[in-house]
Each structure stands twice: as structure tokens, then as C-alpha cells.
Amino acid sequence: MRISWLSPGSFLYRFSDWVYKLIYVNLLWILFSLVGVVVLGIFPATAALFFVIKKWLQGEELESVFKFFWAKYKANFIKTNLLGILVVITGVLFYFNLLYFRSQEGILFYLYYLVLGLAFIFLMMLMYLFPIYVNYDMKIYLTFINSFFITLLTPLWTFLMLLGVVGLYFIF
Asked: Considering just the CA atoms, what is the radius of gyration of the chain in Å?
């Protein structure tokens, strides 16, 4: 018996199903980020997005993606906003340090490159922050520490993720 290219077992069907699911969950992410007035909604919505994708990658079908997303959004609202506030504060501190050291002369100017390197590592850490948060139930500071060590201990994966982000940037 021949399998049609539109039958449920075909590659095209499975690929289209994944694209549909990703579009749907990203629309939920946008909606819930806006519902939370962007700042207080973006971090819980991002965590909920990762929780949904984790379930899908584990091969579990969700009865209602919306209900699961909403439940995870509510359950993680405070903790993910604390995580997000720390991310924003750290990013702002890096930004102002970069501005300050860039305007200096002499030996202080060279600290600009040190802070730039640390800011780059911080940005790479952000790629691991929510996956670690979703997969492991740990305190916020441990989430940061683990994302830092994973960033440093898996340079190949971090570089490949960076290439993926840059590639997506140029595609979009």
C-alpha cells in the first residue's frame, strides 16, 4: 500500500503539523505577553511557551494547548517575573558599564573589552535560562549559575545556537 504525501504518516503532514503548532503557540505567546502588558507578561509567557514545547518534544499530546499554556502562565507568573527582572537589571548594568568604560581613557578603557566579553557571555546564558528553568525545579540564582556553567562548558552547542539565532535574524 502506497502512502500519500498528505496522509498522516507522511513527512509533509508531520512537518505541516509542527508548523501549525508552532504558529499557534507563538500566537499564544504574543497574546499573553500583551495581556501582561508586555513587561510583566513576556517572561511568564516565555516560560509557558517552553513548557508546551517540552511536552511536545516528549511526545505528549496536549488535550488543550490553551488550557495548559494558561495554567503554566499563572503558576509561574511571579517566579518568572523575578527571573526577568534580574535579567533586565543585569542587562541594564552591563549597558551602562559599557557606556562608561567606552568613554574613559587609559587603562580604564581596556575594562570596556572585559565588560563587553562578560556581556557577551551573559547574552549566551540567556539562551539556556528558560530551558533550564522549565526542565529543573530550582531556585532562581541556581538557574542563573547553571546557565552560566552550561554556556561555558558547552561552547560548541552555544556557538551552534548563536549561529541559529543569527541565521533566524537574517531570515526574518
From this structure: 20
